[in-house]
Amino acid sequence: MLRERIVVIIFLLPFVLWVLVDGNWFFLVAIMTLLSLAAAEYGLMFRGHGLRPALPLLVLGVIVLSISRFLHGFEHMPFLLTLLCLVTLIWHLVDYEQGAPRSGTDFAISVTGIIYIGWIGSYLISLRRLPEGEWWVLVALPSIWLADGAAYLVGRAIGRHPLSSRLSPNKTWEGYLAGIVCGALGTAGLAMLWRIGAGLGSTLSATRGLIVGAMIGALAPLGDLGISMIKRENQVKDTGSLIPGHGGVLDRLDSWLWAGVIGFYLISWLTT
């Protein structure tokens, strides 16, 4: 499993870096595709247990919110979220009339998926479109990998106190704290390194990188636990099997979703 993960990472990393640095339409298509696949996996998990979330609306909602965020920022978001909620309600009212037994629950799952994956996930686009966004993305997202790697290694070596015994028994408080520290220090180092490429007038600094890394390392793992909660309820190990050694797309995006949000607001605050 570890070998498969390493091979996939080495194969995909140049492509991922190219997409992130590009930041234009190809970047939008890449993010939109990942979020759409994650939304489909989310809906199919519940459909496997007799529920009927609106898969077409889950994917359509993600696409609409992603395109709007790319083109217009937050300008049309209240209207679009309201419209998507209304259309989703109509879908499930019709579905109930056609015999669906739990349309109230289905409606809640569909709306939650659109908001959680579409609205929250679109912050990856907002983060990239910040001033110097190409550099800040390369600060915020690797902080997840640094924190996860440190948490895994320290947790296996000296972890004794479970962080969340029901949701993720292998995670420990020792690993979690190590992830915050290593994520913060590693992200500070990345910010200093990227500053060389960004230029002396850049907003990147070791202090800002340290703060971003610490906050993402502390809060983004909640995304991992949140998706684990959904998987536990649906009695599945992974959200899908699209990525060898990694499970599904949503398995890989679980912490990224919150890294995008936290990074966007924190970096916006730190650089203004």
Cα separation of the termini: 44 Å
Structural class: mainly alpha
How many structural domains does the protein architecture include? 2
Helix fraction, binned, reads over 70%
N-to-C SSE series?
Answer: HHHHHHHEEHHHH
Number of helices: 11
- What summary fits the major beta sheet? 2 strands, antiparallel
What layout of secondary structure does this protein have?
Layout (H helix, E strand, L loop, with lengths): L1 H21 L2 H23 L7 H18 L4 H21 L5 H17 L3 H6 L4 H26 L3 E3 L3 E5 H26 L7 H14 L1 H14 L14 H22 L2
Antiparallel strand pairs: 1-2
Helix pairs in contact: 1-2, 1-7, 2-3, 2-5, 2-11, 3-4, 3-5, 4-5, 7-8, 7-9, 7-11, 8-9, 9-11, 10-11
Structure notes:
This protein has 272 residues and is mainly α. The protein folds into two domains: 24-128; 131-272, no CATH class. Helices cover 76% and strands 3% of the residues. It has eleven helices and two strands, in the order αααααααββαααα. The protein has helices at residues 2-22, 25-47, 55-72, 77-97, 103-119, 123-128, 133-158, 173-198, 206-219, 221-234, 249-270; strands spanning 162-164, 168-172. The protein has a two-stranded antiparallel ribbon with strand order 1-2. α1 (2-22) packs across α2 (25-47), α2 runs antiparallel to α5 (103-119) and α3 packs antiparallel against α4 (77-97). The radius of gyration is 19 Å and the shape is globular. The termini are far apart. The relative contact order is 0.13. The model has no long low-confidence stretch (mean pLDDT 90).
